[in-house]
Amino acid sequence: MKKKAAIYARVSTDRQEYQRQIKELQSFAERSNMEVKYVFEEKQSGFNSERPEYNKLMALTKEDIDIVLLWELSRLSRKSIEIQSDIEKLTSKGINVYIHNKSLYTLDEQGNINPTTKLIISIVATIAEDEVRTSKQRSKSARQQYIINEGRSYTSHAPYGYTLKNKKLFINEKEANLVRRVYQLCIDGYSIYGIAVLLNSEGLRTRANVLWTQATINSMFKNTVYIGKPKYCISSVRRTSKVFTRQYSRKVLEYVTLDRPELAIISEAIYDKAAEERKKRRHRSLAIDIQPYLLQHLFKCPDCNRYYTFDRTTKRQKYKCARKYDKTVEKPTCQSPALERERVEFMIWESVKYYCIETMANTRKEEQQLPLLEEIDALKAKIENIDNMKQKIVKKAEIIVTAAIDLKIHYSNMPELYNKKMEEVDKLNKEAIKLDYERKRYKSQIENAKSQIDAINNVKDMSQYLKDVDFDTKYNLLHEVVDVILPYGTKDNCFLLEVRLKTGLKYYIGYYPIRAYYIQFLPSKGNYFVGEERSGYLEIINAKSCEHISLETEMKKYTIVEYINQMDIPANRYPALPYRLKKRDKFLKDMLQGYSKEQLLEMLQ
C-alpha cells in the first residue's frame, strides 16, 4: 500500500525557483512507493510565520498524509526553535518528515521517534539559522561600506530635488529651484500651510502629480540632504504594526550623517534661518491671550475622523471639520456640517447637566455599570490565560535548559551547541516579557473600567458646582464627562449630534437653527441612529398585523430630517438660547406646548 505524501517547497524571493525542488521530491516519492497527495509551494521568507501554504501543511492530520517531504530543513522555517517545534507537532500526529539533502527520517519504520535524528535536526537547524544571520550581516555591512565610502545613494527613493541614476543621487535643477523657493517663502513669513496653498494655487504639483500638503512641505524642512548632510540609517527595529503585506514601518535606532557637499541645494545659513522662523511661529500663540473654545477636541468628523477646529474669523464663530476646509486637500470626502458656536455650546452644556445629574445619577447607574463589570471579568479571564501561557513557556524553557546541560556534558568539544540552546531560552524569555507587557495592559484597562465606575458613582456630587459656573469650570467638567461628539447635517439645515459620555452613556440632540427649541433623547432597542448610513431606525407596529389584532413590529428606516421630525414631541423638547425666545418666533407656540410658564422660566435660569 502506497504511503500518502505532501511536498512543501519554499523560496524567499521571486528571483528564486522551486520547481527543481518539487521535481526531485516527486521522483523520490515515486521511487519510494509514495503517492503525492498535496504539493504546497510559496515564495515567502522563512522568518515570516504568516505563510498560507505553510499553514495548510501544518493543518493536515494523519488521516490526510503519512509523510512530509522537504528539500532541506530550512524550507520549513529559518528559526531553529520553530523548526524543532514544527517537527514535534508533525511527529506527535504520527506524520513522518523526510529531509532530502540529509536523507533523514524523523520516525523509524515502527513509527517511533529516532533520537539520533532529533539531535541532528537540532544541530542543523541551529547552524542554518546562524548562517542566515551571518550572511545578512555581511550583506548589510557591505552595503553600508558602499554608501559611506563610495558615494552610493543612502536611499532607494530620491528625495524631491534629486534624481537617482546608477545608484547615485544627482541634483534635479528644476525641482531644486522649487526647494530653494520653499525655504525662501518660509524665511519671508509664510507658514507651512500657506506655502502648500500657494504652490497648489499656482498649479504646481509634487513628483507624483498630487497636491502639496503640509506633511510634504514639513518633511522638506526636516531633510538635511538639502545642505549636503543626509542622514543614513544603520540600525533600526521593526515596529509591531504591519503597514503592508510584506512591509513594516521601522523605528530608527542609529544613523550616521554623511558628508556629501555635491548634494547641497541650499546653504546651512538658509536651513538654520528657516528652522528659526518655524520655531518662532510655533510659539507665537503663547504670547497672545486667546481663550480656548469650550468644546475643543470634543467634536470629531464622522467621515474623516479628524477633530473639529474653531473658526474665529467670521461674525458667527463656528466649529468645523479641519480637513473639509483644508485648501491643501484636493477633494474633501466628508459631509460634516459647520456648527454655530453659541448654540451648540449651550445645548451640549444643558444636556450634559441633565443626563449627568438627573438621568445617570438617579436611574441609570446600575445599567451603565453592568457592561463595565462584564468587561472587567473578561479582562481578568485574559490575564488568567496569559498566566497559563507563561507557565507553559517556563516549562518549555526548563526542558531546553536540561537539553543544553546534556549537550554540554556529552558534547563538551562543541560548546556552540550549548550556546545556541541558551539563545533559545533567551527567546522564550522575550516571549515571557511580551506576555508580561500584555498582562500590564489588561491590568491598566481594568483600572480604567474601575475609574469609569467611580465616575458614575461620583457624578451626583458634581451638582453643587453646576450653578453659575465660570468658563474654566465648564471646560474642565465637559472634558471630564464627554468622550466625543459626532455631528451630522443635511442640506435642509437640520442637524443631529451624537453625544458619547465617558461613562458609556450615549444620547442624541436634534435641532433646526431657526427653531426656538431643540430635542434630546436616548437611544433604545427600537430607536437608534446609524452614523455610517446617516439613517435613524424606529420600531413601528406592522400595519398588516393590525387586521388580525396581532401586534407585530418592524424597524423602519428614516433620513436624518425624518428621524428628527419623528422624535420631535413635547416630551423631548428643550428651550434653546434665551435671546431667541421672541414673540415673533413662529415656533414659540409649538415649543410652549406641554410646559407651564413656571417650568419654562425655571429651565431658562
UniProtKB/TrEMBL annotation:
<dbReference type="GO" id="GO:0003677">
    <property type="term" value="F:DNA binding"/>
</dbReference>
<keyword id="KW-0229">DNA integration</keyword>
<protein>
    <submittedName>
        <fullName>Recombinase family protein</fullName>
    </submittedName>
</protein>
<dbReference type="InterPro" id="IPR050639">
    <property type="entry name" value="SSR_resolvase"/>
</dbReference>
<dbReference type="InterPro" id="IPR011109">
    <property type="entry name" value="DNA_bind_recombinase_dom"/>
</dbReference>
<dbReference type="InterPro" id="IPR006118">
    <property type="entry name" value="Recombinase_CS"/>
</dbReference>
<dbReference type="Pfam" id="PF07508">
    <property type="entry name" value="Recombinase"/>
</dbReference>
<feature type="active site" description="O-(5'-phospho-DNA)-serine intermediate">
    <location>
        <position position="12"/>
    </location>
</feature>
<dbReference type="InterPro" id="IPR006119">
    <property type="entry name" value="Resolv_N"/>
</dbReference>
<dbReference type="InterPro" id="IPR036162">
    <property type="entry name" value="Resolvase-like_N_sf"/>
</dbReference>
<feature type="coiled-coil region">
    <location>
        <begin position="425"/>
        <end position="459"/>
    </location>
</feature>
<dbReference type="InterPro" id="IPR038109">
    <property type="entry name" value="DNA_bind_recomb_sf"/>
</dbReference>
<keyword id="KW-0238">DNA-binding</keyword>
<dbReference type="Pfam" id="PF00239">
    <property type="entry name" value="Resolvase"/>
</dbReference>
<dbReference type="GO" id="GO:0015074">
    <property type="term" value="P:DNA integration"/>
</dbReference>
<feature type="domain" description="Recombinase">
    <location>
        <begin position="159"/>
        <end position="285"/>
    </location>
</feature>
<dbReference type="InterPro" id="IPR025827">
    <property type="entry name" value="Zn_ribbon_recom_dom"/>
</dbReference>
<dbReference type="GO" id="GO:0000150">
    <property type="term" value="F:DNA strand exchange activity"/>
</dbReference>
<keyword id="KW-0233">DNA recombination</keyword>
<dbReference type="Pfam" id="PF13408">
    <property type="entry name" value="Zn_ribbon_recom"/>
</dbReference>
<keyword id="KW-0175">Coiled coil</keyword>
<feature type="domain" description="Resolvase/invertase-type recombinase catalytic">
    <location>
        <begin position="4"/>
        <end position="150"/>
    </location>
</feature>
